[in-house]
Design goal:
Layout (H helix, E strand, L loop, with lengths): L4 E3 L6 H12 L18 H13 L3 H8 L4 E6 L2 E8 L7 E6 L13 H5 L12 E6 L17 H15 L4 E5 L2 H12 L4 E6 L10 H4 L4 H14 L4 H6 L3 H10 L1 H15 L16 H14 L2 H13 L9 E9 L9 H7 E8 L7 H4 L1 H17 L1
Parallel strand pairs: 4-5, 4-6, 6-7, 7-8, 8-9
Antiparallel strand pairs: 1-2, 2-3, 3-5
Helix pairs in contact: 5-6, 10-11, 10-13, 11-12
């Protein structure tokens, strides 16, 4: 461990927990039209159910203790006091793996996959498929401090994470993640390819190639999936337009009301998860109330929904220093069918050193939460091939 890192324990003050409980008891819910489901946004019956669970059954201290079973640290990197999980494997040949989350997620997304990655033999997996897992909270997210000045777009965060990994002492490492994690990791690969063993992503981003023949080389099944996702996102971008233009305005209500925060975040988890994979079609049968509320509570207790939303604004207004070019890093792609953004394989092949491509039968945007076993297997399939090279 770097001398500048220090152990960290999650310990939310009891008065903050009581304040949350008091606010939940005073919840005022909106009305809802008859005969609708999620068409207008977060559905009243489901949000009410989750809030009732939050008030009466959710045990933050239990979830806090489970999080603290992992190894947490903080480290000052430039002007950010960066929080991160650093779970080392006992396997001397373990690959360092930087896992990067997105919005509205947190490091809690990774709690079901960290030990299978660091101690695979305990989960019936091959001991050679071991990793040292490094999972930071993005600046302004979770338990990391928030930037105090503008400019923290994904490229700047990528540069920060590259410096962070240097400070930890890792000269060569692998990277994986989705959502903003995928965007940040693409920037790491674009700027620091020589430092990387490989890049895995479950939300691959690629623009149409200049070669029109290659750009149009999309199979019927892949084209249908691309069209389906594009159509789906037409009614999913309201949050995005607000957060990339006026995030501060939304932050007042979301910081003051736990019910408002829950509704804002739950709507994204419902829309972007593969709820159709559950027989009941309910989000809670894909991701439990406890897991959803642990993630929401991390935003609530750290009072950083405002700083977390600013990445959308910064991504829009801050021009890149090094525009994205060909990603000359071995790349693995796992396509979960309910992902919000899907690039055709021909586009990805034109923009990346593509080594692995797999389309899964189920799963969505929050792959590590929805399909933890599959997600671990996907990482092992891709990085395992690189181990053997």
């Amino acid at each position: 461990m770097s001398e500048s890192s220090r152990p960290f324990t999650i310990d939310i003050p009891q008065n903050a927990i009581q304040d949350l409980q008091d606010r939940l008891l005073l919840t005022r819910l909106p009305n809802q039209l008859n005969g609708i489901n999620w068409e207008y946004g977060a559905e009243l019956n489901y949000v009410s159910e989750v809030i009732q669970y939050w008030k009466n059954e959710f045990d933050w201290r239990k979830q806090e203790a489970a999080l603290n079973e992992l190894d947490h640290y903080k480290m000052l990197v430039e002007d950010i006091d960066l929080h991160f999980i650093h779970q080392r494997s006992n396997n001397k040949n373990a690959i360092p793996l930087l896992l990067v989350h997105g919005w509205p997620g947190s490091i809690s997304e990774f709690t079901d996959i960290i030990l299978p990655l660091t101690s695979p033999e305990q989960f019936g997996l091959s001991a050679k498929d071991a990793y040292h897992v490094i999972a930071p909270s993005l600046p302004g997210f979770g338990f990391s401090s928030a930037p105090i000045r503008p400019g923290y777009n994904p490229e700047k965060i990528a540069n920060l994470f590259a410096k962070f990994m240097q400070q930890l002492g890792y000269e060569k490492y692998a990277i994986a993640g989705g959502d903003w994690g995928a965007v940040i990791n693409r920037n790491i690969a674009n700027t620091y390819p020589d430092r990387l063993i490989g890049l895995h992503t479950n939300m691959v981003i690629a623009s149409p190639p200049e070669d029109e023949e290659v750009a149009g080389d999309i199979g019927s099944e892949e084209g249908a999936l691309l069209q389906d996702r594009q159509t789906f996102m037409l009614t999913e971008r309201g949050y995005h337009s607000l957060q990339e233009t006026k995030p501060q305005t939304a932050a007042y209500g979301l910081t003051d009301s736990p019910a408002g925060l829950a509704g804002w975040i739950l709507e994204k988890f419902h829309g972007w998860s593969d709820v159709d994979a559950a027989e009941t079609g309910r989000l809670s049968d894909r991701i439990s109330h406890d897991k959803l509320l642990t993630n929401i509570a991390i935003y609530w207790f750290n009072q950083n929904i405002d700083s977390s939303m600013r990445i959308y604004y910064e991504n829009r207004v801050v021009p890149p220093i090094k525009p994205i070019s060909y990603i000359d890093v071995p790349t693995g792609v796992s396509i979960f069918p309910n992902e919000i953004y899907i690039s055709p394989r021909s586009w990805v092949q034109a923009g990346y050193d593509l080594r692995y491509w797999n389309v899964l039968p189920s799963g969505g945007h929050f792959a590590a939460l929805e399909e933890p076993v599959t997600y671990v297997n996907e990482l092992n399939a891709f990085f395992g091939a690189l181990r053997d090279d």
